[in-house]
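Could you join me in thinking about how sequence relates to backbone shape in a protein? Label the sequence line and the structure token line clearly, so we can match residues to local backbone shapes. Once you have written the record down, we can walk along the chain together.
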Amino acid sequence: ANTWTLLPEVTTPSQARKHGNAYASVTTKLGIDNEGLRAWESRMLVNLARQDHDAGMEELHERKFGYRTTPSGELVTSSEYGTRLHAALEEWVNAEMRGHGWKETEWDEAIASIIYEIELVDCYTHTEVQIGSHELRTVGTIDLVFEKDEDTYLADYKTRACNGKPSSKIYDKDRNQLAIEAYMWWKNDWLQFPSDKMPKIMTVVYCTDSGKVHTKVWSDEQLERGITAFCACSIAYDVLNGLDDGSKLRTAYGI
């Protein structure tokens, strides 16, 4: 069976070319379609570097989305906040799947809010699933997989500051990420996952300002658009970074 391994030593397209068998993540490839975000990130990094001359680039990237206060009152970076809540959710679901008791944590209220909004499920089946495709030259991670009403659902958690309105912070890029992961799930029979039909996809947004949660189940039509959007970004990413000779792009446009 194929397995997917994180390569911490490969962080740039140049290193991927030298490695010869390294693929960019789904979110990295989708990032090529977000010029506005890249410009904002550049400005933030410059401003942060001016404020703290001793901070390294990795630390600056951690700070760029600001800080959040955990339920216990600890001030952490936004990315660290999201990482901790993700980990707590994963542990809670894993405990449910094993039938073990859950040890209380500071994230219990947040977890309860998220699980309530997801609503009753038939069963949880997987957490943190790495899934990839040699055809698409990419790898993604699915936060949660569950069964409900005879359908398989892939869910992705997002923690965002949204002034108490989490429904306002769901974007097409969230759809695109889940859509291509659903496609890879459906195609990869070797993973022994249910693949008789395409999974449903759900984005779950937790508002770090208010604790409110909003879920969105994307329609089948939206899922199809998401697959198309990812493929366009993927081809462009590979061509622009010298990871593909452009044959896929020429075929797509009949050139």
